[in-house]
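tool_log.txt
---
The assistant was asked to compare two proteins side by side. It first ran the structure predictor on the initial sequence, then on the second. Raw inputs and outputs are pasted verbatim so the downstream comparison step can read them without reformatting.
(1)
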Amino acid sequence: MALDAHTAADVGNQLIELKDQAVAATKRGDEPFLRVKPEETTMNILSSHDGTTIAYDKQGEGPALILVDGALTVHSSGSGSELAKLLAPHFTVYGFDRRGRAESGDTLPYAVDREIDDIEALIDRAGGSAFLYGHSSGGPLAMRAAIRLGSKVSKIAMYEPPYNNDPGAQESWSQYLRQLREALAEGRRGDAVALFMRFVGTPAEQIDGMRRAPFWPGMEAVAPTLAYDHAAILGEPWSVPTELAARVSVPALVMAGDASLPFMPDAARVLSQVIPQGQLRMLEGQTHEVNPGVLAPVLVEFFTS
């Protein structure tokens, strides 16, 4: 069942970057998920606590900073490489394919604690402590990791964790999760991705074009991770988990763009207020697709202060 335009716009703001890249690639006829990786980085492998292989790279020199991607994002495809390059003069920057994506493995059944185990394994590889930065749904995962891992996480930063405190949005979110679970349980990975694309406001004809494009199998391959991010990490209700956030014991920077849809800055504001050492930073002119050149100096200032 299709969502109305207002709901689609609201839900979709959490992955506008993905939609824009996919639509542009459809028009060009090329592949957004297999961008060439920077020559100065190579993927390494470590074993997480349950034996799952996690692919990661690192660059730079300084305190460890781990980048935690959001929904459907594949680090080894080149995602985040520009941000990592800007941060590398100040930190040893670790990026990784979250479990179930590209070069990393997966072990069922999924559990959020297993993703936190992956982050802990990276922190141990980095020397035992690290900063965490999470974009979109990577932010709530970073927050949960900071709560569980204690002193291993020194500070966290999040850009637009995609919570929505609007009571009117909760039923739409529940409907999306039900349909997502059904599609994945029946092995309809393409339909699961298409469902999400409808949420991001992509017109039906563009979704049809994407399904015929060379990059579509790559999207289907990571479709199960939509449930990881949305059903497990964000969960229900879709609103800011104030009791959970109040357990964050480290300094936390919560950011949002002032050009995003209103629910994003509102959620960031609430989250920054309930985290004991939380602070809010609004980035002028930024949407969910934040400019790395704007974001990097803010992260450097926060993590080095």
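(2)
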Amino acid sequence: MLRHKAIETPSARDDAAESADSSRFSNAGQLSSGAAAGAVEDAQATGTLEVEPDASLRKRALDIVGAAVLLAFFAPLMAIIFFIVRRDGDPAIFAHERIGKGGVPFQCYKFRSMVPDAERVLKDILVCNEHFRKDWEADQKLRNDPRITAVGSFLRRKSLDELPQLFNVLKGEMSLVGPRPITADEIKRYGPDIEYYYRLKPGLTGAWQVSGRNDVSYEERVALDVDYTKRWSFLNDIAILLKTVGVVLIGRGAL
């Protein structure tokens, strides 16, 4: 059950994030400025809702226990992925600013799945290819993105590139289940529905993932986030976690 609680809130998909930040992991703790800061400031006047204290504690307990168990289980695999991705000399992990609960920015971690200097490559693609440019303007991502490496394609298909976000969950910046993490530039695309996004922490998985991620439009993704927040329950989180296992195993809707 959700109850109203007013609070003060400070203020491209992962492809833009990765291309801009893959070489700056060591500066992951710094917050970006400029347009992102302006978008965050716009969010400060927005009210938010919070989960009842007992339900919030159950959700947080699930996050801590679940993330700790998953990190212990996947630690050997994460080490292997780290060294494979690191072979080209660029950082294996990148961090990019996302908007969290209440509009608070945080650094979201992922394994790098693109070629080095992906930002420059993206600019060249958008200038030379009208089809890719339309894709990017519509959804802030490219279908069949030529910047994705062979290893990166496999990591994305199995959602293994998102494993470092378990550290975000342990830090309390994300939840195992929640709305899709968005950038400051995406706030305006939510319109008045951004209020619902601010109510809960963004998730490692969520309704958007088990519903086919790449197979739904941006507007449908927003609608899924809103519906998830309105109908939030502990049991629904468990159900989404179980569905996620199946989605990852068959690769349906993988990025």
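---
observation on (2): Residues 2-250 form one domain. The mean pLDDT is 79.
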